[in-house]
Amino acid sequence: MEKDRKYPILRNLCYLIRATKQGCAKLLVFCPLIILVNCLVPVITSFLPKVIIDEISGGSPLGRLLAVTGCLAFALAGAAALQKYLDRLIYWNKFKMNAFFLRLITRKGLTTDYRNQEDEHFRTLQDESFASCNGNFSHYARTYDALVRFLSDLMGFLAFGAILVTLNPLLILFLALTTAAGFFLDCRISLWLEKNTDEKAGYERRMRYVVQAADDTRAAKDIRLYSMAAWLNGIYEENLKKLLGWYRRYTAKLFGAAAAGSAIALIRETVAYAYLLHLALEGKISAADFVLYFNVVAGFSAWLGSLLGQITDLERLNHAINRFRSYLEYPESYLREKGKPIESASAPKKLEMRHVSFRYGEDGPDVIHDLSLTLEPGEHLAVVGLNGAGKTTLVKLVCGLTEASEGAVLYDGTDIREYDRDGWYRLFGAVFQDHSILPVTIAEIVAEEEEGSIDRERAEKCLRQAGLWEKISSLPEGMRTRYGKAFWDDGIDLSGGEIQKLLLARALYRQSPIVVLDEPTAALDPVSENRLYETYDEIMQGKTTVFISHRLASTRFCRRIVLIENGRILEEGAHEELLARKGRYYELFETQAKYYREAPGEGAVLP
Fold first, then answer.
1. Whose CA, among 160, 301, 316, 573, lies 20 to 30 Å from 194?
2. How far apart are CA 529 and CA 518, in angstroms?
3. Could you tell me whether strands 560-565 and 568-573 are parallel, antiparallel, or unpaired per DSSP bridges?
4. 42: closest CA among 257, 421, 301?
5. What is the C-alpha separation between 306 and 148, in angstroms, rounded?
6. pLDDT tops 80 at residue 392
7. CATH match of 430-511 with 3.40.50.300
8. Which pTM does this prediction carry?
9. Where are the domains of the chain?
């Protein structure tokens, strides 16, 4: 399925209208009204002096003259007031549409297939989509403005054209050609910008990096210890000079286009007004008509120039809408409601990986290669290996976060791709290396529920099992303590080890039949780690567990250990059995263990 949408402008405008009907239907009333008013104000302004001159020339009494003038002036003032009022209403209601589109973007990001979140192209579209709806001058907000201006310009162009056609159709052709010539000069500037924007962005990006480094406390130590200030300042100055050079070239092109455009405008206005003067002097038009046509000639050129500009603007905005729709319509392959339902059960079933291979991208190397592995119900399995061996990828495959490039993952004999994926996720309690903790109370973090729905006894039990209850119970608010000092004035922050214990408590509270722990003790000290392992079998009784670690000494409590290297199972067995083989597991274990042993004669080997 094609990932990037390329809809024509009309289809995207229809999409925008449908979305507006859902998000803020008032705009579908306000926008047509302001289009009519935008056209009406210049028409009244153009006809006002003609009517007054006609009344004076016709010898109308003062009362009639004042009445006619007053009515037109009142109509003009009312239209102008309505124009400002509608403009303000549209301005504020565009915020509602921004919020509407942001909800669509957020929902897509929260519910899309996990593997989409690992797709660089998807992430790029996501960032662009957020930018498209950010602020009242975002792409979507400007689309409403551009569409209103385009239709206003079109109506004004047709109205003024209808007036001029009664004078001389060739005059319309002359005005149109000269206005178009000025427009194409502006287009050349736009094309130059498109070709050279990346150069400008590169200079700005490097300058921004230096500014951010100067404000980054993490970089401050290196900058001072390694005397990097002069070097970074030189980078900034070099790119500043190049950026100024870019702007000099841009300004020169702007000046040239402006000079040529002004010359064309001068010729256009001179010819048009000379023609009007000729007609007036020849008596072919009255003084009132001269004033009317004088205003209409200027207005016609302005309407046409603006109309052409809005076409270009709408084409550019159409590209942004296509990128936005490409994000919202990004292909989803996981089955949801249409998938096979999973019966909620506390007892796990057989989980099998059958000849599974996985790669990032169609042409990328295998991260997991032809791997077959079976987990019996209630089995405790440890997966070990060096960094980059493929352990975390294996976890994502088992959890159904991503899918095998080849082979299949089976649960109770059924390919997990056939299951309702949301139901599948409920089978798992997991602690990942990359975690997310919301700034809510400790109880809400553990239960992942609102305060009123939490089983507080279960939450306390899980915190005790994870080894964090002593810390939480010592706080004045206990489990009602809010997490995150950056978010709450009375919030707390936790150390890395405490966070991992909190995440473990969260996984335990879920009471899922399968538990996956991806490096759950990486931030714990050896004593705390050992205490956790002593109670591990008790905590996970009756559950299928997958324990991922690169520290081999931490896996001896598991009944079976699998050593992965380069995406393949290299060795498999119990801890003592693997040591006895004196193979790769033994080699890695000894390499790690020597750092925990005391010097000869000074003590025993640490457990």
1. 301
2. 14
3. antiparallel
4. 301
5. 12
6. yes
7. yes
8. 0.75
9. 9-167+285-328, 336-427+544-596, 430-511
